[in-house]
Specification:
Layout lengths: L1 E5 L6 H12 L3 E3 H9 L3 H24 L6 E3 L8 H8 L2 E7 L2 H9 L2 H6 L8 H19 L2 E4 L5 H14 L7
Parallel strand pairs: 1-3, 1-4, 2-3, 4-5
């Protein structure tokens, strides 16, 4: 069984995913990193060269590949959940943990992360904060519908978030109690 981390950009999927994988001694795979390794392009370059539609096709192919794994911690891209087929693939062998974050926290994290600005494209022509609000409003029903567990990440240390996920997994009988 995989643990699939979903949520908006800068919700903490990669950071929490790596820490969770370390605690559970499981491999961690970030879907965006997987795509970048396969294409030798950043997500921004893919968007710039071929557009969002082509990126979403690549993302769907990557998710089909990653859904065949077992015992991994997987971090999806923030928009992967919009394609129902992606959710269907990952749900076959995965529990979804939504890392939930407020728009203001996401904006602060995005603004403070130079890698996010250089590797991730804008999704609309709006100013960044308006884009975040718009995209979160659009995606929230998809996130909530898919989530088996919801964990807030605003102003919380990574280990506290990981602890909440571990408690959820223990409650489901997927890992032994400490």
């Amino acid at each position: 069984m995989n643990v699939v981390l979903i949520g908006f950009r800068c919700a903490g999927k990669s950071t929490v995913g790596k820490a969770l994988a370390n605690r559970l001694v499981r491999p961690f795979v970030d879907c965006d990193d997987y795509i970048e390794q396969k294409t030798h392009l950043t997500i921004r370059e893919i968007f710039d060269l071929a557009g969002e539609s082509y990126f979403r096709t690549l993302e769907g192919q990557a998710i089909a590949d990653l859904s065949r794994l077992d015992g991994h911690i997987l971090a999806t891209g923030g928009g992967a959940i919009l394609k129902r087929q992606n959710t269907k693939y990952l749900k076959r062998n995965g529990l979804f943990v939504l890392l939930d974050v407020t728009p203001d926290t996401a904006f602060q994290r995005i603004a403070g992360d130079p890698a996010t600005r250089t590797r991730r494209p804008a999704l609309t022509d709006f100013d960044p904060l308006t884009e975040i609000h718009e995209q979160m409003t659009l995606r929230q029903p998809y996130y909530r519908e898919a989530a088996d567990c919801v964990v807030r990440t605003d102003h919380r240390p990574v280990e506290e978030v990981v602890g909440e996920i571990l408690a959820f997994l223990q409650g489901r009988g997927l890992i032994p109690p400490p």
